[in-house]
Amino acid sequence: MSTTAPTTGRGVLRGAVTGQRKSVLAASVLAAGHQGGEALVPVVVGVVLDRAVGDSSTLTLLGWLAVLAVVFLVLSYSYRFGARAAERASERAAHEIRLAVSRRVLHPRGGAETGSLAGELVSVGTSDARRVGMVNAVLPFGIAALVGLVVSAVVLLRMSVPLGLLVLLGTPPLLFLAHLIGKPLEKRSELEQERAAHASGVAADLVSGLRVLKGIGAEPAATARYRRTSRDSLQATIRAARAQAWHNGALLALTGIFIAIVALVGGSLAANGEISVGDLVAAVGLAQFLQTPFTIFAWVNGQLAQGRASAGRVAAVLSAPPAVLDGTGELPVSARGSVTFSSVSQGKLRELDLTVPPGELLGVVTTDPATATDLLDCLGRFADPRDGSVHIDAVNLSTVDPERVRDVVLVAAHDTDLFEGTVEDNVRGGMPAVPDGVLTASAADEVAATLPSGTATTVTERGRSLSGGQRQRVALARALATEATVLVLHDPTTAVDTVTESRIATGVAQLRRNRTTIVVTTSPALLSETDRVVLIEDGQVVAEGSHAELVRAEAAYRAAVLS
């Protein structure tokens, strides 16, 4: 994954769409050949009537029929390969946009996920990316329709100046009206995508927490919430469909009136003897043909309106400000792992001062869960302190590139998910093998022993085929396997029984001996194995000592860990 800084969203979109200009150009040329051929068909038929049939010449008739066959061959070939080139350009552009959205969402500096549910981001990276990519599919056909109109106008000009001018001068106002008619569709399409993405995000959120919802009996409330969200999405979709129908109907009515005027003028000229019978046939045929390019214009205009709406949503994700700024500072190649909070204020933290010497196993207890979240965000550089600084080996983390910070500091969040694959794959990550002692220290060896194929057992998406305690132990094993210089664990044993928790506490302490480890937890078993425990209340360290000392001396500590 590229870790370059996030780029301006609209610039990325332009690059993804225009990057397929060769395919779009090829598709445009081929599609123009198709539309030009379609326009020439009634012209050749008119010539056959005037010359071949009028002169009663079989040879001339065969010759023009051969010309007509060639025209059909060319337009058929052009459409087939033009559509293929347009589809290729569309899919490639959508693919580039999906990659850009994925890179932005996964960027170490973060920020893209702020205020958005996971399902909403998935919708932007799939449905909206496809709609923007469709611009490359429709543009060649829009250009081809314009070519068809020009060919028709030129032919009509050669037959009759009034007919040609009617087409040439009548087309621009019609296209402008089509653009105005597409504005309501664009707005309603944007709202439709927003509501659909929100519904998708809520659905993903509810599915991921299904076991919890069942456990607390909250299924009716969850169902009601999704019903409301789904109803809003449905109403937005219906409004967008109505706008689409009105848009298509209005354009069809306008083009029908325009074509009728062309046919009426052509018939009047033929009745006055200003054009031949063959020319009249050609003019009527061209008037009927004009229905095709105008229908294409209606389709293209609708697709572009939807594409513009989706482009705005994609650009918003790509242009989202990063959660933290870039940095030019460098951590030592072999970091010792000392951690220092100097007057840090961020969220619930209030001028926090805390020093963790290299190799210490530190327990952290907070009376407010939000305080723990803010502490973890600062340690992993998911957020920079509003005031004060966090140092690793005397280097200010705010000056270091976030990716480099995470090479040294690993924050293992409480709600970490597993991925589809084997248990070993989840523990090993990108490493060639699982380090010795990791499975034992995390009690994940017990999990493997209960599975049919041990660590080679495949788990489903997000590890749902495992119990909560099993998932937690595998996630802990994955964190331990990184052998990070500074490892931060947040409530790693909340879903396991007390016997297993005690074993994990001992195993983590032994495996992480002489390596800096910070455990943010209220588990007595884990805290009793630490070298030191600090109690953070109202955003500041109010007490420190061993677990036993704090249990005896601090009422707030007892309430937090023994309640």
From TrEMBL:
Domain ABC transmembrane type-1: 25-306
Pfam families: ABC_membrane, ABC_tran
Keywords: ATP-binding, Membrane, Nucleotide-binding, Transmembrane, Transmembrane helix
Listed transmembrane segments: 61-79, 137-157, 163-181, 249-271
InterPro entries, alphabetized: ABC1_TM_dom, ABC1_TM_sf, ABC_transporter-like_ATP-bd, ABC_transporter-like_CS, P-loop_NTPase, Type_1_exporter
Domain of life the protein comes from: Bacteria
One Gene Ontology term of the molecular function aspect: ATP binding
Membrane topology recorded in Swiss-Prot or TrEMBL: Multi-pass membrane protein
PROSITE patterns named among the record's database cross-references: ABC_TM1F, ABC_TRANSPORTER_1, ABC_TRANSPORTER_2
Main location, first listed in the record: membrane
Subcellular location: Cell membrane
Chain ranges of the ABC transporter domain: 334-563
Protein name: ABC transporter ATP-binding protein
